[in-house]
Design brief:
Largest sheet: 5 strands, antiparallel
Order of helices and strands: EEEEEEEEE
Structural class: mainly beta
CATH architecture: Sandwich
Radius of gyration: 16 Å
Strand content: over 45%
Distance between the termini: 19 Å
CATH class: Mainly Beta
Length: 128
């Protein structure tokens, strides 16, 4: 698991290899990731959007961005947390993801970025 705190917001990520799948006549490697967002600040915040850079060992890069996470824009009061799971398909058994969440602070009404640390996506059979 990897974790990072940005402006009082802690992001923790755990990953799992889910198996291989054929899609459009190509082999893909499926990974899930489980993200915990904890508000350690003194202000209420809301997650507004996400931005991901997804890499695989074949040097392919995919950028994904959009509103919320899994259709939600959670509001976190001080001391609260939000947990969600999602996933991605890679063309190789090794890769990584990194990105950020754009959040709004309800006290200052300012938007700010919360860094999601780089996390590895590794199929166990691909590691020595």
């Amino acid at each position: 698991m990897v974790s990072q705190i940005t402006r009082g917001i802690k992001i923790s990520v755990a990953t799992s290899f889910e198996g291989t799948y054929f899609k459009n006549y190509k082999l893909h490697f499926a990974f899930s990731y489980h993200i915990t967002i904890e508000n350690h600040s003194k202000d209420s915040v809301q997650l507004m959007s996400r931005y991901w850079e997804i890499f695989d060992s074949l040097n392919d890069k995919e950028v994904v961005s959009g509103e919320g996470v899994i259709g939600k824009k959670p509001v976190l009061k001080p001391g609260e947390s939000h947990v969600y799971s999602s996933g991605c398909l890679l063309a190789s058994p090794l890769g990584s993801m990194k990105g950020f969440f754009t959040m709004i602070n309800f006290t200052s009404t300012r938007k700010f970025k919360v860094i999601v640390p780089t996390f590895r996506l590794n199929a166990p059979f691909a590691l020595n």
